[in-house]
Amino acid sequence: MKNGTTIPAKIGDVSRRAPIRAFKIAAVLLCPLVVWGFGIDLVHLAGHLLHVVLGVLETLAVSLGVQLFGLSHRAAQAVAAYSGLTLAIIFTIRMGYRIYLRVRRWVERLENSASVMWAARHWRLLVAGTAALSALWLTQL
Predict the structure, then answer these.
(1) What local confidence, expressed as pLDDT, does residue 16 receive?
(2) Is the pLDDT confidence value at 13 over 60?
(3) Could you give the dihedral angle defined by the CA atoms of residues 23, 24, 27 and 32, in that order, rounded to the nearest 10 degrees?
(4) pTM of the predicted structure, to 2 decimals
(5) 24, 29, 32, 38: CA torsion to nearest 10
């Protein structure tokens, strides 16, 4: 082709991951803007959505217990509540362990990093630079 452009020999040669990469790049660029624009409202919205979803799941579990297993309404509510509590505890433990492993891996990489050694030697410069940037930011408010 002209101007040194090339086309793939087959359709299958085009990377199928390109749209996923483009989506990830767009998400990384747009997420800070959305968080900056909406702020704490996003936390309230996420909490409200979680509350609604858990309420619907609890209602479905109670209906399932009453209709399918023949439990009384109160017994089905108790089963749903304790099942939900058990799932929440399991989820919290698993997520806590995953976060622990990621932080541990990150700390191990950081300890072996040359930038940490540089920061340990030049900590006064880092403190002075941070103070200067903070002062500049505060004067612009």
Answers:
(1) 60
(2) no
(3) -160
(4) 0.54
(5) -90
Q: What are the CA-CA distances from residue 28 to residues 19, 33, 37, 78, 99 (Å)? A: 14, 9, 15, 43, 21
CB-neighbour burial class of residue 76 (10 A; exposed 0-12, middle 13-18, buried 19+): buried
Handedness of CA 125, 114, 96, 35 (dihedral sign): positive
Residue ranges per structural domain of the chain: 2-113
Q: What is the rounded average pLDDT for all residues in the chain? A: 84
DSSP per-residue letters across 46-64: HHHHHHHHHHHHHHHHHHH
Q: Which amino acid is at 11?
A: I
Angstrom distance (rounded) from CA 28 to CA 50: 23
To 10 degrees, what angle do helices 123-139 and 114-121 make?
80
Q: Could you give the count of Cα atoms lying within 13 Å of 121 in the half-sphere of its Cβ?
A: 4
Rg (CA), the chain: 26
